[in-house]
Amino acid sequence: MTIRPIVVAANRLPVTRTPAGWNPSPGGLVRAMLPLLRASGGTWVGWTGIADDDIGPFEHDGVKLQPVSVSAAEVQDYYEGFANDTLWPLYHDALRESTYSVRHWDAYVAVNQRFADHLAELAPSDAVVWVHDYHLQLVPQMLRRRRDDVLIGFFFHIPFPPVELFMRLPWRTEIAAGLAGCDLVGFQRSINAANFTSVCEELLGRTTRCGAYPISIDVAELEAIAAGRDTRQRSNRYRTRLGEPEVVLLGVDRLDYTKGISQRLRAYQSLLDDGTLDAERCVMVQVATPTREGVEHYQNERKEIEQLVGEINGVHSRLGHPALHYLYQSLALEELVALYRTGDVMIVTPLRDGMNLVAKEYVTTRLDGDGVLVLSEFAGAADELLDAVLVNPHDPAALRTAIVTGVEMHRHERRARMASLREVVRASDVQGWAERFLAELTG
Ligand code: GDG
Question: Would the pTM count as exceeding 0.90?
Fold first, then answer.
């Protein structure tokens, strides 16, 4: 393992401001990285998530944090604009039209330069700088220009598109060159690494070292929450409140058009409409966590989903028994884990997803060894979770079939598949992921 100091750069700092002070943000990435930073005397560089928040460096739980300020205009142009309305749709199979705006690009360059300047000034000599995700693709080259002594690694949490799509980007050469400043670029799937190599060959005439490092979750933490008495009791209460149905179908996603929520709801609707599923016997819960509400594609997606929820419940609910429970809310992790334990068929059907941690969380928390995972082939997790019911979510008939397969699967098959899925996730948790990437970068 590396003994060089580690510096992480990500759009967001690993803490969130609350009235009571700074709290660590949820998520396996934070939990995996903080001990490594603490042990190596490293720093995390990122935005606090609050516009015009101009505060100096501080320490949290033994880790140094360096805030990067982002103005209100930059939140619109760099974050909502270039990151989430240009790059996000383009890198997810162009599922929505990207905007291409010079103003957004200029803000993206300025914020990336600010990150690179902070890194150049604070990285100890011979540090390992690990840059995360699509918000910061120009940072490696900008940092390399100022610091020749540091090792620079980059990890993409989202897919990297095929060259045909990437070529649409008016700033494609600048972005490829930005990433080429790295010593190693990591992706979720090997197809993403192959796409990146084609882009580098096409635009730069040379390649950059890269590979697949599929991310995972904090298995020990999730298993501990799932094993808690509180969680079991909570899960039993949920089942009672849902009316003790025979089958609980479950979806948990950020409300994002990449997650295929409306396609999934339409499949459920058609199964109820033609009587294949009976709302007296099954119920669906869909959690859709609010996200990027300032971006128009998200506002439209929310309207479409809520229209469908109304149609489904209008036709198929009985008094006191909705056919579909829709929560446009962010739940506490304990509530989420209890829901995973309540869901008999977990439906994870993104149209495109870098990895999808919900799929891994679901199987990890199924300590009872039961439950069915229906999983999109278009999620990175499909490379590993081969015993899920794999489905092409672009195909409405296939989606219907996959859901019915999940509902009707016999107990012995459910348990055999779940045992194998749990084994796969247990064998590679998020700590192992970070260690593998850093070992390759420093080795
Ligand atoms: C990006 C890539 C890649 C969701 N709702 C609630 C909640 N969550 C948590 C889940 C899970 C996380 O958020 C979502 O992770 P995903 O992987 O499913 O998706 P993205 O947010 O799109 O993440 C993705 C990931 O980065 C990591 O590299 O896998 O492909 O798109 O952990 O549990 N957590 C709580 N309440 C909620 O309501 N507490």
Answer: yes
Q: What is the CATH number of the domain that holds 34?
A: 3.40.50.2000
Domain range for 92: 6-216+430-442
The pLDDT score that the predictor gives to residue 61 is 87
* Same domain, residue pair 104 and 189: yes
From 31, 356, 376, mutation site for ligand 1 pocket: most ligand atoms within 8 A of C-beta? 356
Q: What is the pLDDT of residue 31?
A: 75
Closest approach atom of ligand 1 to CA 159: 30
Q: Is 338 in the pocket of ligand 1 (CB under 6 A)?
A: no
Q: Does the beta carbon of 16 lie inside 6 Å of ligand 1?
A: no
Q: Is 252 in the pocket of ligand 1 (CB under 6 A)?
A: yes
Give the number of domains in the chain: 2
As a three-state string, the secondary structure of the chain is CCCCCEEEEEEECCEEEECCEEEECCCHHHHHHHHHHHHHCCEEEEECCCCCCCCCCEEECCEEEEECCCCHHHHHHHHHHHHHHHHHHHHCCCCCCCCCCHHHHHHHHHHHHHHHHHHHHHCCCCCEEEEECHHHCCHHHHHHHHCCCCEEEEECCCCCCCHHHHCCCCCHHHHHHHHCCCCEEEECCHHHHHHHHHHHHHHHCCCCCEEECCCCCCHHHHHHHHHCHHHHHHHHHHHHHCCCCCEEEEEEEECCHHHCHHHHHHHHHHHHHCCCCCCCCEEEEEEEECCCCCCHHHHHHHHHHHHHHHHHHHHHCECCECCEEEECCCCCHHHHHHHHHHCCEEEECCCCECCCHHHHHHHHHCCCCCCEEEEECCEHHHHCCCCCEEECCCCHHHHHHHHHHHHHCCHHHHHHHHHHHHHHHHCCCHHHHHHHHHHHHHC
Does the C-beta of 384 come closer than 6 Å to ligand 1?
Answer: no
Q: Does 180 share its domain with 302?
A: no
Mean pLDDT rounded to a whole number for the chain: 96
- Which residue has the least CA distance to atom 38 on ligand 1? 330
